[in-house]
């Protein structure tokens, strides 16, 4: 009944959000008597009430899959159009390609592996936009599990790695890979498999950003939650069945709204202050600042479901058994040996203030590849950056992205 209860609550809140939006329009109308008190001028009753209702309407609205909206980027002060295309279509995830029209034909190709952790790949819009300056960018656009019919089968960590390998085969030889957060583990394992098999499409470089390679290093509250409860607790308490109104009806999933609730509760005070600041910006007419907050939460609250098998396997293998650093991680029943990585150069990036993947968790990857030459390894710690700031925002654009580009140029 978990999913049905959520849908019932969502329908109520949608109605409340619609009524609040109507109230905003009425209160902001210049003819509203609450805004005017004769020759003494305007008073703030209308604008203040309208601002409060607008914050409420925005906070309770439903959000679908966001658009990429990457129509053009500025390179050296000149706007350049961006081409977007879906080049591989598969049930549980597509491969999208982005490139700017005036990009040189011999520009390096990069696969950005987006997290399958409750948000859409568009969360990496800022990451892709920055990389488009010098690269032909491919992105894994994972599907919302509730939209995938049951006849398409299951999707777990093995399938995730197979998808990544298949996408790299489509891109061709000489590609570079960037794994953001959660995919660092399966992409790291897939890289080991491709190195072991001397696969011609094995990536030349792999950049892992804020990934839970070894969660025993500086464990965070996310890690503690996974360790404090047995896997059966997760199976019985956070897994739900997709309702009949969706194409994936009957599929067992970890709902995106559960993941969002967890993330919001971790920093509830900060989120409340962000909405209070938005209210103040709206009250004084600072629409630009208010819109920046709205844009962030439009993306942040756009969530999607994960298949139950993928979620449960990730919790157990990554956070409870630490299978990858312990050398017990399997792919299709065969052990993955990280010592097989001898060709792909590795860059590990961490944020100083990351409260999702603590310091040392991603860096551990460099210590788990004993046969890879030290000249092909690099570590970078982004000072002052939180988890989101590693791949988005000014620190990403001005401090972190140049490190990635320099590393790729050195090993490309």
Automatic annotation (TrEMBL):
Q: Name one Pfam family in it.
A: PHB_depo_C
| InterPro entries reported in the protein's UniProt record | AB_hydrolase_fold (IPR029058), PHA/PHB_synthase (IPR051321), PHB_depo_C (IPR009656), PHB_depoly_PhaZ (IPR010915)
| Superkingdom of source | Bacteria
What is the protein name given in its UniProt record? Polyhydroxyalkanoate depolymerase
């Amino acid at each position: 009944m978990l999913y049905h209860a959520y849908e019932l609550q969502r329908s109520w809140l949608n109605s409340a959000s619609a009524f609040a939006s109507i109230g905003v329009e009425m209160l902001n109308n210049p003819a509203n008597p609450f805004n005017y008190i004769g020759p003494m001028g305007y008073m703030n009753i209308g604008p203040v009430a309208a601002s409060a209702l607008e914050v409420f309407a925005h906070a309770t609205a439903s959000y679908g899959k966001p658009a990429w909206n990457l129509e053009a980027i500025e390179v050296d002060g000149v706007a350049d159009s961006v081409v977007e295309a879906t080049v591989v279509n598969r049930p549980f995830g597509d491969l999208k390609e982005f490139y700017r029209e005036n990009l040189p034909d011999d520009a390096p190709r990069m696969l950005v592996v987006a997290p399958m952790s409750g948000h859409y790949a568009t969360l990496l819009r800022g990451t892709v936009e920055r990389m488009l300056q010098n690269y032909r960018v491919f992105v894994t656009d994972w599907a919302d599990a509730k939209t995938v019919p049951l006849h398409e089968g299951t999707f777990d960590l093995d399938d995730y790695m197979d998808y990544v390998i298949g996408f790299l085969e489509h891109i061709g030889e000489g590609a570079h890979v960037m794994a953001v957060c959660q995919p660092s583990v399966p992409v790291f394992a897939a890289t080991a498999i491709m190195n072991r098999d001397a696969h011609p499409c094995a990536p030349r470089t792999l950049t892992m950003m804020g990934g839970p390679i070894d969660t025993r290093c500086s464990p965070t509250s996310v890690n503690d939650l996974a360790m404090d409860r047995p896997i059966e607790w997760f199976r019985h308490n956070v897994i739900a069945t997709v309702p009949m109104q969706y194409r994936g009806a009957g599929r067992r999933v970890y709902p995106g709204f559960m993941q969002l609730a967890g993330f919001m509760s971790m920093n509830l005070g900060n989120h409340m202050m962000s909405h209070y600041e938005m209210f103040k910006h709206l009250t004084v007419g600072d629409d630009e600042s208010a819109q920046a907050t709205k844009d962030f939460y439009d993306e942040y609250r756009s969530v999607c479901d994960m298949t139950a098998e993928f979620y449960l396997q990730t919790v157990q293998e990554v956070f409870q058994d630490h299978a990858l650093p312990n050398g017990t991680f399997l792919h299709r029943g065969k052990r993955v040996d990280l010592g097989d990585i001898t060709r792909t150069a590795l860059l590990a990036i961490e944020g100083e203030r990351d409260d999702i993947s603590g310091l040392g968790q991603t860096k551990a990857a460099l210590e788990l590849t004993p046969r890879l030459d030290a000249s092909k390894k690099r570590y970078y710690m982004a000072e002052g950056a939180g988890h989101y700031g590693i791949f988005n925002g000014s620190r990403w654009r001005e401090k972190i992205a140049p490190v990635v580009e320099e590393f790729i140029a050195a090993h490309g």
